[in-house]
Amino acid sequence: MKTEVVGTGSRGTRIVGSIALVLTALLLLFGLVLSPPEISQGDAVRLFYIHVPSAVVSLYIAFGVTLVGSVIYLKNGSVFWDLIAGAAAEVGVLFLGFALITGMLWGRPTWGTYWTWDPRITSTAISFVLFLGYLAVRRLDLDPVARSRRAAVLGIISFFNVIIVRFSVQIWRSLHQGTTLNPADTQMDNSMLFSFFLGMLAMVATFAWLLMHRFRLAWIEHQLEEDRLATAIAARRGEASTFNPGTI
Amino acid sequence: MTEIDLTPAVEPDQPGRSRIRNWLIVGGIGALLAFILVQALTSARVFFYNVDEAVAQRSELGDETFRMQGVVVSEPETDTDGRMTFTVNFNEVDAQVVHVGEEPSDLFELGQNVVVEGHWEGDAFTSAQILVKHSENYVAEYGDDRPGVGENISQ
After folding, report:
1. Which of A68, A76, A213, B137 is placed for a possible disulfide with A187 were both Cys, Cβ 3.0 to 4.6 Å?
2. What CATH number has the domain spanning B49-132?
3. C-alpha distance from B55 to closest chain A C-alpha (Å)
């Protein structure tokens, strides 16, 4: 038995990838050219269009998928959901790292520092390390089922910190700004708001595209591992059926 | 019969080596997490005092380094030694700040909400760092010929 590896691309990934590309191009146009500078921050405000969307996508969407996948895996042992959880965490850590870096770049011209141990920033850094830990557990040299179970438990525990990140600016005093997009009281120029929503859509599409590729890669790896095991077992059985003691 | 190559793709680890590697990974991540948590507990737990609280607790705070938040209510003045002096206010309590650290960001100005880090030195607060708080409201910087410029600026 042999699995034909044809790559991680598909009609779906090509469509989602194209959408992500178009949205990213539009984001660059609106974020860098068509939207105005902010009255006090100047051009530094343009980091807002990528910083907030990447943080939202990683913390709530990516790690949310990891949470759901981990719960389902622990409930029914579904390999599909285990791999989805791992792939989402991997892409989520990438996005969160991007959010931390763009936040630092934004903090220097506005706050006056790249980094400070503010509750929002600190809790976000804790999330980053927790999910790095989750990915590390997925690579431990253990029995695959035990490894996936431990990773799933850590994935669920780690999501609790995402809730702390969300409410950190309300629970503690913070240098970080509060909720920017309060539906009841949004105070933002329309072209800035539009650029922000473009940023959200571009990040969601890019996340979906990367998730599909990463999941398919993990699935192919899993299938190859299964095939290798099946081939080895079949070969041993074949040897046993043709075994002739007289030849020894 | 088909010939099958069952040679392992990689040489198996020696006994104990994989366990050491597992512990190194877990230990490294744990150490990083512990470092951030220590910073969080010592620094981020009370990120800043408001001016009125810092003034009320002046004797308890002594020469301890802490952060203080308030609104800049006097035009900052810089002397020949490069020290910048200004007054911050919160809940109708003033505190004079003498800043001796690096220059704050361009957003620093009269009426801006700031967090200064430093300690009490006599009646004044000696600051080594000024962090500028910016609000969650974003106002477009249009040209002067656009109508309504500055009308919805909130400080």
Report:
1. B137
2. 2.40.50.140
3. 18
